[in-house]
Give the backbone structure.
Amino acid sequence: MNSGGLQIIFSMTLYIVAVIGIGFYYAKRASESSGNYLIGGRSLSPWVTAMAAEASDMSGWLLMGLPGVAYWFGLSDAAWTAIGLGIGTYLNWLFVAKRLRVYSHIAGDAITIPDFLSNRFKEDKKVIMTIAALFILVFFSVYAASCFVTVGKLFSTLFNTKYIYMMLIGALFVVLYTFIGGFLAESASDFMQGIVMIFALCAVFIAGIAAAGGISSVVENAKNIPGFLDFFGIAQPKLIDGVQQVGENGKPLFNEAGKYGFLTIISTLSWGLGYFGMPQVLIKFMAIRKSNELKLSRRIAVIWVAISLFAAVAIGIMGRILYPAALLTQSEAERIFILMSSDFFVPLIAGIVMAGILAATISSSDSYLLIAASAFSKNIYHGILKKEASDKEVLRASRITLVVIAIIAAIIAMDENSIIFKVVSFAWAGFGATFGPIMLFSLFWKRVTRSGAIAGMISGGSMVFIWNKLIKPLGGVFGIYELLPAFVISCIFIVIVSLLSGEESKEIQEEFELAKTMEV
């Protein structure tokens, strides 16, 4: 390996050591109780809450998946997705954050999302808790897999090593420090990783503009690609067996621009609906130390998201101009950030910049693994299978489950040609449709019932699979993102079933009213 490769390894090793150090620092507190391990004793500061929520949300998708979409299809798909996510982020912090922090405290001091939903309806038979926990286990296994794919692509590209080895090493690292430090380690490291991610994006964005000769040069060159800079059109690479064709002049070939109509725009904007059901974000709302500090967190989070999404889309656009024929499949296109980082910076700095991808991946996969572990240990093992289990037994079950979920995710991630954007979009739809509608109704509609909640969760989660696998392949108007129809179906079921079933008890309604005004 040359000196440049060694310098990159050195930079990233320093970063990895820092993250593991955070895990050991919080190990003692994490082991004190399952509450500390799973939600940090509700002790997060506004800055840590904001950065940890967004870093765990965005994952390696932000630095690889989104730039890859912009590189491959041009502005429209990536930009409308980013706009939807930006709006969703703001609305989630504005409406859901404070109400959930207060209500989760009132509803039996719930420390997981299944806990909150079950306590909200005063369940004796833990049906809601079980359904919620099972959906979390399924979709977070997929989500964690997307993170492992990102790590595998990063290291296999950097060091010209087999993807599968690099993916497994990355997975092992994530499991190690999450296993040790739990939620506090995850949140503290996510704060650091949020800073690394935005630094990496801004650094590559600025260097890309300089390398391309300025923004005007990027725009002029991009206009030569049909539909590449259109908000209402989309670039169509000319493909044979999934590989973009290259002309005799060495330039990649494109078909005529496709249409990006109103229905497609609404479908893409619907990414923003997913935020209302994202456990990795919602759990951070529940973990802040004071509900009145969420206003500051909201401002920090929204600014971070706006800058990061803009830079990620711009990097993909610039990447196509600077390296027009370097990445000829959609899967390869997701490596554009790595390629630009390697070329623009000396190896030592490139290692720090590319640590942004590692940071994004770790900050998400640790959240996914931890929440999936809590779903089983706290909600299924302790809530149903062994109600008399001690806190230490619950803590041990959390750690065992974390390892099992990581193994399942690693098996899913074995396919080197997985497209990160597609893997994430499916899991995002799953959470958004399963939890988003019932979270909103539970927080803001007193008339919602336990039966309505069950019907909404099952219909929403099931419709994601049905639409993606059976209806979406029909194309045309059915080709929309599965989150939108599944979210709507869930809402319809919640309203109809709630109205057909009797009102909930006076105790439940009084708690609802208390959550509207109380501060914690």
About this structure: The radius of gyration is 23 Å.
